[in-house]
């Protein structure tokens, strides 16, 4: 007696989803491309001071819109990032892009900063120190209070503090081991406008050049950086550093929110030695961050590895073929409709093969098409797939025509490095 149709479908579906690691490794091309780790704001972050997750976990707030409490907060990626190889004194290059919003409530706070720090637990003072350094660091004896903590930060300052040599209440600055900035400039945008602002920060280690761009647009980076500083960070960057954000309020109060964030390092001669302490399995080496697949999951991490573009698309197509093939194989005598409606096989009458209703077949086809949508953000998660298949969740909207495949290059949005200098080593993303 042939196996029931549902059993065949379940078997093929599980084979498609749970590909053995050894078999999957054979399909992966050898590459020195970066490891792409998809991070949720709700995990993999260390929150200090007044930092907290916003409802829904879609963003992180570094401060509260009041002058009560600590007044400073930090959000750091919990795992250290390799920035210096033991056998070399030359640090890695890095670039980051993030979208933030500073909302006065009703007065202005002091601003926020992107930082690299050697300590995951240290939190600096509020007011103009932005949670980066202790208040005593503004004095001659302040170095002793740093306790060996190394910090590099890019400030987005919204309050003028004359004692800290601020030129005005709307500027971008570079702090290299001290609250007294080594370079500063006008941001070209109003940091206190309460609207989303996207920042790009890029450090090119071979040229010892740090650049910062700011824009109201999340997709178009300005041609000219707002800040460009010649600085050697090799004396401040340790073998491993923590990347994240810090903000503070003082006499005023504002809500400092980071909504989206990507970070990567590159420039190592051997990428296998340059990643952060490895997870339980080696990450998947991709070339473009497009298709998302599950991997390296355990209860305290929500990492997702990103396949290469072709790998993700082909994998989805294979899954679709298996799902549809299993359904068609279950039909004993398919019949085509003769009216003007789209044709679709109808259930067979041979009860030994089981019966598939038109609704079930339509659901299977739509789920398969949803899983191979060119835009990975519009693909349903596995839990939703299961619920859609058993009818407990509504179907996702499938367009009438195949959407165009949009492949975004690094180009204007991330880094402008040449091919010799772009050996990527790590990529982290919070959305």
TrEMBL record:
<keyword id="KW-0732">Signal</keyword>
<dbReference type="GO" id="GO:0030246">
    <property type="term" value="F:carbohydrate binding"/>
</dbReference>
<feature type="signal peptide">
    <location>
        <begin position="1"/>
        <end position="24"/>
    </location>
</feature>
<keyword id="KW-0812">Transmembrane</keyword>
<feature type="domain" description="Legume lectin">
    <location>
        <begin position="43"/>
        <end position="275"/>
    </location>
</feature>
<keyword id="KW-0472">Membrane</keyword>
<keyword id="KW-1133">Transmembrane helix</keyword>
<dbReference type="InterPro" id="IPR013320">
    <property type="entry name" value="ConA-like_dom_sf"/>
</dbReference>
<feature type="transmembrane region" description="Helical">
    <location>
        <begin position="305"/>
        <end position="332"/>
    </location>
</feature>
<dbReference type="InterPro" id="IPR050258">
    <property type="entry name" value="Leguminous_Lectin"/>
</dbReference>
<dbReference type="InterPro" id="IPR019825">
    <property type="entry name" value="Lectin_legB_Mn/Ca_BS"/>
</dbReference>
<comment type="similarity">
    <text>Belongs to the leguminous lectin family.</text>
</comment>
<dbReference type="InterPro" id="IPR001220">
    <property type="entry name" value="Legume_lectin_dom"/>
</dbReference>
<keyword id="KW-0430">Lectin</keyword>
<dbReference type="Pfam" id="PF00139">
    <property type="entry name" value="Lectin_legB"/>
</dbReference>
<protein>
    <recommendedName>
        <fullName>Legume lectin domain-containing protein</fullName>
    </recommendedName>
</protein>
């Amino acid at each position: 007696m042939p196996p029931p149709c549902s059993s065949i479908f379940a078997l093929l579906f599980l084979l498609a989803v749970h590909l053995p690691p050894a078999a999957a490794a054979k399909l992966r091309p050898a590459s020195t491309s970066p490891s792409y780790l998809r991070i949720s704001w709700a995990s993999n972050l260390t929150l200090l001071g007044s930092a907290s997750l916003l409802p829904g976990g879609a963003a992180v707030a570094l401060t509260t819109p009041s002058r009560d409490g600590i007044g400073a907060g930090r959000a750091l990626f919990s795992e250290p990032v390799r920035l210096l190889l033991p056998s070399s004194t030359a640090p890695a290059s890095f670039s980051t892009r993030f979208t933030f919003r500073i909302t006065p409530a009703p007065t202005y706070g002091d601003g926020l900063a992107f930082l690299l720090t050697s300590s995951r637990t240290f939190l600096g003072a509020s007011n103009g120190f932005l949670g980066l350094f202790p208040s005593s660091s503004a004095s001659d004896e302040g170095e002793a209070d740093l306790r060996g903590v190394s910090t590099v930060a890019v400030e987005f300052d919204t309050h003028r503090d004359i004692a800290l040599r601020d030129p005005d209440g709307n500027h971008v600055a570079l702090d290299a081991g001290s609250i007294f900035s080594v370079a500063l400039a006008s941001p070209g945008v109003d940091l206190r406008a309460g609207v989303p602002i996207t920042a790009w920060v890029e450090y090119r280690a071979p040229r010892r050049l740090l650049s910062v761009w700011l824009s109201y647009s999340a997709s178009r980076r300005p041609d000219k950086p707002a800040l460009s500083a010649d600085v050697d960070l090799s004396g401040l960057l340790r073998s491993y550093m923590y990347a994240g954000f810090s903000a503070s309020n003082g006499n005023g109060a504002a809500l400092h929110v980071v909504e989206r964030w990507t970070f990567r390092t590159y420039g190592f001669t051997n990428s296998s030695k340059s990643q952060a302490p490895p997870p339980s399995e080696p990450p998947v080496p991709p070339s473009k961050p497009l298709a998302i697949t599950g991997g390296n999951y355990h209860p305290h991490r929500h990492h997702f590895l990103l396949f290469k573009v072709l790998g993700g698309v082909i994998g989805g197509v294979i899954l679709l073929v298996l799902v549809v093939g299993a359904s068609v194989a279950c039909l004993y005598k398919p019949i085509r409709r003769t009216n003007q409606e789209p044709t679709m096989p109808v259930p067979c009458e041979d009860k030994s093969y089981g019966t598939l209703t038109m609704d079930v077949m339509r659901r299977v086809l739509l789920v398969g098409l949803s899983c191979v949508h060119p835009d990975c953000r519009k693909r349903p998660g596995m839990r939703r797939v299961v619920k859609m298949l058993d009818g407990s969740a509504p179907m996702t909207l499938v367009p009438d025509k195949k959407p165009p495949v949009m492949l975004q290059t690094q180009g204007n949005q991330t880094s402008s490095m040449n091919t010799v200098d772009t050996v990527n080593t790590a990529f982290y993303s919070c959305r």
